[in-house]
Write a structure and sequence with these properties.
By secondary structure, the protein is α/β, with parallel strands linked by helices. 39% of the residues lie in helices and 17% in strands. Strand 7 (265-267), helix 10 (275-291) and strand 8 form a beta-alpha-beta unit. Helix 9 (242-258) runs parallel beside helix 10. It starts with 9 loop residues before the first helix and ends in a 6-residue tail after the last helix.
């Protein structure tokens, strides 16, 4: 059993007052139409989770999930301690059944005896009885609306009448309300955890595989919680696709606000992968929402050891919090702009940039760094004052305007002070480097009148995302359709920090529809690393696919094979397949759903047994694990995708 009751303290009263003040300020700022541009955390209600409350005035919490068997008490306790020592403020374990749920109480007791009071969370799928048992043992229980009562999605197109649909919701109520009552008695919080990959057939029948369906699934449970006066609720609404994830969370927040709900939010990108790709993809999705002020706890889901997730999560949160209390940004949303589901900004085509063309990658090689990665070749190279002949002729080179001469694939770059010369320049493409504060009405008019201008737009503001958002909306207000390459500058010696910061910033702007091009500068590492970051960010934001994408889940207690080794083997065999999406899933809970837009899938079907998918269709079942990678390669070849 848990060792402390829920209590009302002076700290709680203070947090409630601070949260109320934040909510009033948030509403004021929204009324003034500047919340989109200025960083301010969304006001959420406080939820009690053991001795570590979430939401309200509490800090943004970080957490991870164990990947050992919940029945292996010794291993579970040891891993929980490693996670807590690495910074975990909540530790989650899977509980497939009542036996696992009850053993969480044993794990809780042993952790308490060793002085570790960090709340434990039970992760439940398909088994409401396990949720009931877990609520008596730990501080929080996660349930999945897609499979708590409803049957999990099978990709069948079922028809429900209004009466049948309502009857299914009543069935949920009949099972969910007794669970809430158990939680009340034992002081247990809950997380309603909606996953894109596990919507029920009932939800799919009415909404399809959409953000609206995910929000509807969540709201059904939230309304029951409110009617039962159960306040200790946290929400997560996740997807592997960052575009879907961000749009869905924004839609959920708007929907809750309309019903005066302020529950705290748990953020995460499912199946983000490992290494560079996992970090960049997580930062694009989570960082975008944190920049919006949304999020009370995060999990960076990497296909690595759980302890590895926590320093990454802490770096990401700390970076976003650096913009607290920044100098106000004055901005106004452009007419027709939808912050929940932005469309790509309208721009004209200049050379290979703008319009509906793929976003370009511009690299800064003005210091003479001439090494390139063949898998991340930029579209344009800024060489500053260097001689264009020092660089490969097919590459598009950008030189300082004072040195420019008409020649193939060489374009001038002007400063704002050189705008008069820019007007008389006859280059087919003319780059204008400027900051957001230099973007005046007169300059926008000049750029609109000159069909060859491309803007290289940067900022020195501490909240770079907000400042660049404001500048982009000024362009849209002015009707200036010059393409914009977004330029961000860092000084990071640590590659991981560069990946996280640049992905959080550029990802937010790309997901807002500002997709003409990117330029990432970093003084602390080789240019080729920044190049790889840019291509990784574009891919994570679904703006430009340039390499194989691996949709791989983090390992947990449900994983049916050695996930990290398998990912490495699959990558070794398939990483040359440009633009192909391969799902690598430890089990069937989210597997077929989260990888629904993958070209091929590798899913744990049983202990050391694998099922292979082509799209949503399972084509080979229960293959021995030792044969599965070779059979996956064979499947890709059979469908003509090996020579991409």
């Amino acid at each position: 059993m848990k060792s402390w009751p829920r209590s009302l303290s002076n700290t709680k009263q203070t947090n409630i007052q601070l949260a109320a003040l934040r909510r009033k300020l948030s509403l004021f700022i929204i009324h003034k139409e500047v919340a989109y541009f200025n960083y301010l955390r969304r006001a959420s209600s406080e939820v009690h989770i053991g001795q570590t409350p979430m939401g309200g005035a509490n800090p943004i919490r970080i957490q991870s999930m164990a990947n050992v068997s919940t029945l292996d008490t010794e291993a579970a306790v040891a891993q929980a301690i490693r996670m807590i020592d690495a910074g975990a403020e909540y530790v989650r374990f899977t509980a497939q059944g009542e036996r696992e749920a009850r053993n969480l109480g044993v794990i809780r007791k042993q952790l308490n005896e060793r002085g570790y009071l960090t709340p434990l969370v039970a992760d439940i799928h398909f088994n409401p009885k396990a949720a009931d048992a877990a609520a008596e043992e730990v501080e929080k229980v996660r349930i999945n609306p897609g499979n708590y009562v409803d049957k999990v999605k099978t990709f069948h197109h079922l028809e429900y009448t209004d009466e049948e649909y309502a009857a299914e919701i009543e069935k949920i109520r009949a099972r969910f309300v007794p669970f809430l009552r158990i939680c009340k008695v034992h002081g247990c919080a809950i997380r309603i955890g909606v996953n894109h990959g596990s919507l029920s057939d009932r939800i799919m029948s009415r909404y399809g595989d959409t953000p609206e369906g995910m929000v509807a699934s969540c709201m059904e449970f939230l309304r029951i919680c409110r009617e039962e006066q159960f306040p200790d609720v946290v929400i997560s609404i996740k997807a592997s696709n960052t575009v879907v994830m961000v749009r869905t969370v924004r839609l959920l927040v708007k929907t809750m606000e309309a019903e005066d709900m302020h529950y705290p939010l748990h953020l995460g990108v499912t199946e983000a992968g490992d290494g560079e790709d996992g970090r960049i993809k997580s930062a694009v999705g989570i960082g975008t929402l944190l920049a919006d002020g949304i999020g009370d706890t995060i999990r960076v889901s990497l296909s690595e050891d759980p302890e590895a997730e926590l320093p990454v999560a802490r770096k990401l949160v700390n970076y976003i919090l650096e913009r607290e209390g920044h100098h106000p940004i004055h901005g106004e949303l452009a007419p027709g702009f939808n912050p929940i589901a932005p469309q790509r900004r309208v721009s004209r085509v200049v050379g290979q940039i703008g319009g509906g063309l793929l976003p370009v990658v511009v690299t800064d090689r003005s210091q003479g760094d001439s090494r390139f990665d063949e898998q991340a070749m930029p579209d344009y190279i800024y060489i500053g004052k260097d001689d264009p002949d020092n660089w490969p002729n097919p590459l598009h080179r950008i030189v300082d305007a004072s040195l420019w001469q008409p020649r193939q694939h060489v374009y001038p770059c002007f400063t704002v002070a050189e705008c008069a010369q820019m007007q008389s320049c006859e280059s087919a493409v003319k780059f204008l480097r400027l900051t957001d504060v230099e973007l005046t009405d007169a300059l926008m008019a000049q750029c609109q009148a000159d069909p060859a201008v491309v803007l290289l737009l940067s900022t020195h503001h501490r909240n770079a995302v907000g400042a660049l958002r404001a500048a982009m909306h000024r362009l849209m207000h002015a009707g200036c359709e010059a393409p914009v390459v977004l330029e961000l500058n860092y000084q990071e010696q640590d590659v991981e920090s560069l990946q996280l910061k640049s992905a959080a910033d550029l990802g937010a702007l790309l997901l807002d529809g500002f997709q003409d091009g990117v330029l990432l500068r970093n003084e602390g590492c080789e240019s080729v690393i920044a190049d790889r970051c840019m291509f990784g960010i574009l891919q994570a934001a679904r703006a430009r696919i340039s390499k194989t994408e691996y949709i791989s889940c983090p390992s947990c207690g449900r994983t049916l094979y050695d996930l990290q080794t398998t990912i490495a083997r699959i990558k070794e065999a398939t990483s040359h397949l440009k633009g192909l999406k391969i799902g690598i899933m430890g089990c069937i809970v989210n597997g077929p759903g989260e990888m629904a837009d993958a070209d091929y899938g590798y899913v744990g079907a049983g202990r050391h047994q694998i099922s292979l998918y082509k799209g949503k269709t399972c084509v080979l079942r229960n293959i021995p694990e030792e044969e599965a990678v070779e059979r996956l390669v064979q499947l890709i070849k059979e469908h003509g995708d090996w020579d991409r």
